[in-house]
Structures are given as structure tokens and as C-alpha cells.
Amino acid sequence: MITRSDGSSQPPPWQREMARAIRDPAELLELLGLDAAFLPAARRAAERFPLLVPRSFVERMGHADPEDPLLRQILPLDAELASQRGFVADPVGDLPAAAAPGVLRKYRGRTLLIATGACAVNCRYCFRREYPYADNHASKDGWRDALETIADDDDCVEVILSGGDPLMLADRRLEALSDALRALPRIRRLRIHTRVPVVLPSRVDDGLIEWLGGLHCQAVMVLHTNHPNEIDSAVRDAAGRLRTAGVTLLNQSVLLRGVNDSAETLCALSETLFASGVLPYYLHLLDPVRGAGHFDVPAADAVALVREAAARLSGYLVPRLVRETPGAPSKLPVVTEIGSETWEAEGLAMPL
Q: What are the tens digits of pLDDT across the range 231-280?
């Protein structure tokens, strides 16, 4: 909370911005000058998975352009209501991997905490759009069960905060977690998976920077950016503040039909990220979550796109194309090229 000169307090700007976020499809269409014919479908799809988007993110969208790549990520469509073979509620096996409420053990040496169910934006392709957050987030009991689970795992050296979006938690709740982690000296890294600095850069405020700068372990932040148009001056400023606080910045994207399924867009994204101090890390094939089949790009097409991008970019700008497979010991590479040697990785468990 921010204390004013008269002694009263008010929520920080990022929370006030979220209070004004767009939740009504009619308002979104009106703001963007889009045909009202989209409204019935948008309302039907939003009944299953609500619309949520900050106004500052909407301001980066093209006016009267129903094909805008940022709009496509957040506008509810009738296509979400169509059933598609192989698209399920839990596509990455989160529920079987639960070791405690909100605590997932999938990979050796790392424990993932679903810190909250809250997000700054509801991405239509979200692989946790049906996740039962109410009873399955790690912060619900002040992190107690989560911390006991981590303490019992002698292999764990890295804690990964996911969600929802962990940066939707107030600073004091994040501080409670990091303070408790100090009692576990084997924890070397705190990794934060977040879309917030991209869609709500005002969240990267003095309080968050102070918390990150005071961590006892290394901080890694994996941003989620899918298109270069998502990165404006406010996002670049937020990334700069995070780097100044000593945070290592990586990016993961999801390959989405109609959003970033061209080599030109992928190259522009990597260049824009790196110019902002963020290293491209992963490019994910779409997780087959129910309601997102219209975003799917076939693996063969994805491989061709990455090979084309790799022919244009420096090697460190080419994200690794991966898929997540339930029960696998790591993300699985769809293709990994070393010189002229190519590994096709359908079923190949090559750790990344």
C-alpha cells in the first residue's frame, strides 16, 4: 500500500490499473472499433473462460483490426467451444504431479509452486484455463505445506514460481516466501514465470525491485512474450529495472497460429527481446488444452519455421523449440541442431 501525505493509504498503481481492466467483451470491441457482430460469440466463449485484459495492453493493439496478433490472444471466440480430439483439461499433467496443494514435482532438482490463480490477462490458449486453483495454490496457507514439501526434497535446488501469475501477489506475500526460503540454504535460485512485466509493466515498481534486490539467492525471471508488438517503451523500462536489480531475464513464447507463425515475426521477436535485455529461451508448441485447438501449429511446420529463423539469426537469438509431455523428465526438444547434425525428438528425452 502507498501512504499519502494525509496519512491515508491506497493501493499501488498496478493494482488500481487491474481494477480498471477490461472484462466485458462489448467494451473491448467498442474501444477497438470492431464490428459488434463479434459480440455474441465473444460472450459465449467468455462464459466458459472470462475475458480479462489491462487497458495498457489494449492500447498496443491495432484499431479496427480483428486480425491484430495481440487481440487474437485475448478475444474470446466461438472456436473455443468446439471439441477437438486430443485437447483436454490438463494437457501437461499438472494434477498427477502434485506433491501438495499447489506444489508440482515434475523435474529433478526443481519444485514448481503455483503461487496464485490470479492473472493480469486471460490468454485464450492458457494451458491452465481449467486448473482448479481454489484448492490448489501454494500460498493459501502462508506457504507452510509448500515449504515443508520443499524441505523434504533433498534434490531441490531451485524453486519455480508459476500460476496464474506469481507477480499478482502483493510484495508482502512474496517477501514471506523468500524469508522462509532463507532457512533452506540448498535453494540456489528462485525462478519466476510471469507475463505481468509485459502486459502490466506498472507492476515493476519500487517495492518489487526492492524485494528482488534483497533476495538471498539468484533470481531468474522467465517472461512470456509472443509478438514484438507486445514490447513498448514501458515494457523496455520495466526490463531495465529488473536487470538493474540483478535479475536474469529470459523469454518463453508459445507458437500460435495467426499470432507468430511466421519466420519474420519470430525473428523480429527475438531481436526486440534481445534489444530489451531479454534472452530468447523457449518456443513452445501449443499445449493441447481444451478450447485452444484453433491456435495449433503442426510440429513439422514449427520445425520449418525455426530452421528458417535460425538461418537469419545469431545462434543465441534462436529459442529452443520444445513441447511439454506429461511424465517426461524435462521439456522435450522438437528439433535440436548442432552443426550439420539434426536430432528429431519425437519421444527423445534430451534434457534442456
A: 999 999 999 999 999 999 999 999 999 999 999 999 999 999 999 999 99
Whole-angstrom Cα distance, residue 157 to residue 155? 6
For the domain covering 95-344, report its CATH number.
3.20.20.70
Return d(Cα 265, Cα 258) in angstroms, integer: 11
Q: With H, G, I as helix, E, B as strand and everything else as coil, classify residue 16.
A: helix
Cβ pair 226, 260 in contact under 8 A: yes
User: Quick one: which H or E segment has residue 266?
Assistant: helix 263-275
Strands (E), the chain: 2-3, 9-10, 98-100, 103-104, 110-114, 158-162, 189-194, 218-224, 248-254, 279-284, 320-323, 332-333, 335-338, 341-344
For residue 41, CA distances in Å to 45, 46, 83, 169 come to 6, 8, 16, 32
In the chain, what are the domain boundaries? Answer: 2-81, 95-344
